[in-house]
Amino acid sequence: SVEGPQDRRYVHAHHRGYEVLSDPERKANYDRLLQLSTQPGQSTARPSAPRSSAASSSSRARQAPTSDAVERLREQLRRGKLFEAEITANEVLRENPKSGFAYGVLGDIARTRGDYPRASKMYAFALQMEPGNAHYLTRHLETLGILNQRTRSASGSGSSGSRAAAFLIGVVSVLLAGMFVATSPEKSALAGVTPVDTWTVGLLAVLALCGVAVGSALSIARLVDRFDATGATTMGRITPWVALMFVAVINFWASCFLFLVVSSVQRVFDSSTSRLLAAVGGVIAFLTLSALVSRQLDPLQVFLWGGNVSYVGAVCGWMVADALGAR
Questions:
Q1: Domain check: are 201 and 148 in the same one?
Q2: Where a domain ends, among 137, 154, 171?
Q3: Which residue among 121, 138, 154 closes a domain?
C-alpha cells in the first residue's frame, strides 16, 4: 500500500520508467541520452546508443564469440559456479552491451551477496534491454522495495516497531524454550531410536517452534531476502542454497559444512542462508547448554540432531512470513 507522498512519488516514478522502457521510440531516445551522459572511464557496463552500419558489421563479426560466451555462462549457472559466471557475464557485456540475460545474471549474483543497490541497477539494465520481461520487472521492483524500506527505516519512518517486536518475540521464544528443556521432567518418547533415544515430545515441539520463531523473525526484520528469490536463478533453476536445505534434513551440521565449502569454492556467500544457518546454530547451542542442566536429555544428542528439526522449522517460518506479507 502507498503510505505517503514519498511512496506515491516512488510508485509514479517507476510506472513512468516502465512506460519509457516499453515504448521503442522513447527507449531509443533514453539510450541516446544515457550514452551522452556516460562519463569516460566508468567501469560499469551500460546500455549504449544504436550503432552505425559499420559498427553493426563489427557486431556481426563478434556474434559467434558472444554466443559461445553466453553458452558458457549458461553452463556455469547450471553448475552453480557463480564466481565464474560473474566474470563471463561481464565478458558477454563487453561483446554485447545489450544482453539482458547477462545483466539479469549479474543482478542475481549481487542479490545473493546482499548488494541490493547493484542488484537493482543490473535488473534495471536487464529490463531496459527486454522491456516485456516480467521476471526482470518483478526482481527490479523487489530490490527497489527493499532499498526503499531500508531508507525509511534509517530515517525512522518505517515499520521499525514491528521488526523490533518480531526480533524480541524470537529471542523470548528461545529463552523460554531453554527454560523448558532445562526443567522438564518429561520421559523419553523415542527410547527405541538410538541417535535420539533421550528425546521427548516436548523437546521436538520446542525445537520446531524455535525454528519457526527464528525464521519468521528474520523474515519480518528483513534480515533475509524473500524465499522465492533465494530459491531460483534467472534461468529458473534451483540454487545450491536450496539443495543445502535438503541436506539439513539429514544433518544440520553437515549442511553448514557444505555451505562453507561450496561458498568458498564459488567465492559467493548467500547472505540469507548465512544468517539463517547462524541463527539456527545459535539456537541449538543455547538449547544444548540448557540440556546440560536436564536430567532427562543427552546434550550431545540435542547438539548433533536438534538442528535438523529447528532448521526445517526456520525455513517454514521464513516461508509463512513471506506468504502472509509480514515483511
A1: no
A2: 154
A3: 154
For the segment 113-130, the average pLDDT, to the nearest whole number, is 91
**For residue 130, pLDDT beyond 60:** yes
Grid cell 539463517 in the structure block, residue: 276
Number of C-beta neighbours around residue 116 at 10 A = 20
Please, is 46 exposed, middle or buried when counting C-beta atoms within 10 Å of its C-beta (0-12, 13-18, 19+)? middle
CATH number of the domain where residue 117 is located:
1.25.40.10
- Residue that the C-alpha cell 523415542 belongs to: 190
Residue listed under C-alpha cell 517486536? 165
Q: What is the CA radius of gyration of the chain?
A: 24
Q: Which domain holds residue 279?
A: 160-323
197 and 220 share a domain? yes
Question: For residue 251, what are the contacts with CB-CB under 8 A and spacing of at least 6?
Answer: 304, 305, 307, 308
User: What pLDDT does 31 receive?
Assistant: 56
Q: What is the pLDDT of residues 82-111, one digit of tens each?
A: 889 899 999 999 989 999 999 999 999 998
* Shared domain check, 102 and 27: yes
Query: What is 128-144 written as a DSSP string?
Result: HHSTT-HHHHHHHHHHH
- Lowest mean pLDDT, pick from 43-52, 67-76, 112-121: 43-52
User: Quick one: pLDDT band at residue 233, thresholds 50, 70, 90?
Assistant: low
**Statement to judge: residues 241 and 176 lie in one domain:** yes
**Measured CA distances, 239 to 143, 227, 229, 263, 273 (Å):** 18, 11, 10, 12, 11
Residues 6+ apart with CB under 8 A from 284: 252, 302, 303, 306, 307, 310
> Pick from 201, 179, 205, 174: which is nearest to 190 by CA?
201
Task: Please state the pTM of the whole predicted model.
Answer: 0.65
